[in-house]
Design a protein that fits this description.
4 helices; about 25% strand; seven-stranded mixed β-sheet
Length: about 150
């Protein structure tokens, strides 16, 4: 069962890790729970997802692409499934930091190799990537990336 604190724990980590961030893109954000948690902490957040039913948050009901104009200071994803890789690629292309809590790969790769692949991808694309953990049950490993100077 998923830890019900996951959105608040991730939001707390994000605000500690990126204290100067004001605007965030939440990719594959489902109902918008992470958006709500980040908004409660003073951030301006836009969630991208194809769901038609969601919380009352800023929501773009569409797939997120690399060509999305960059109107954010950070791009994030909490268990973004098939959108995980695009978060890393978008952050590199637009030179913004990212933070993701991957839950599964979009290509059938096992979890630990998928995490290594994402970290290596970020490094190849010019990002410094580190791993941290959230104090919760379930998929709690977070990849945090920042553009290299």
């Amino acid at each position: 069962m998923a830890d019900k604190r996951r959105f608040d724990l991730f939001a707390d980590l994000l605000t500690r890790t990126f204290p100067d961030v004001q605007r965030a893109f939440d990719i594959a954000g489902g109902m918008g729970k992470l958006n709500s948690a980040l908004t409660a902490r003073g951030l301006d957040v836009l969630t991208f997802d194809k769901r038609w039913k969601h919380d009352d948050v800023q929501y773009a009901q569409r797939l997120f692409t690399l060509d999305e104009p960059c109107a954010c200071d950070v791009v994030v994803g909490m268990h973004p499934d098939g959108a995980t890789r695009i978060i890393v690629e978008y952050a590199a292309k637009h030179r913004v930091p990212f933070a993701i809590v991957p839950c599964c790969s979009d290509n059938g790769m096992p979890y630990k190799p998928w995490m290594r692949h994402l970290a290596e991808l970020g490094g190849t694309l010019g990002l410094d990537v580190e791993e941290v953990a959230l104090p919760m049950q379930g998929r709690a490993r977070v990849l945090v990336g920042r553009p290299r100077p």
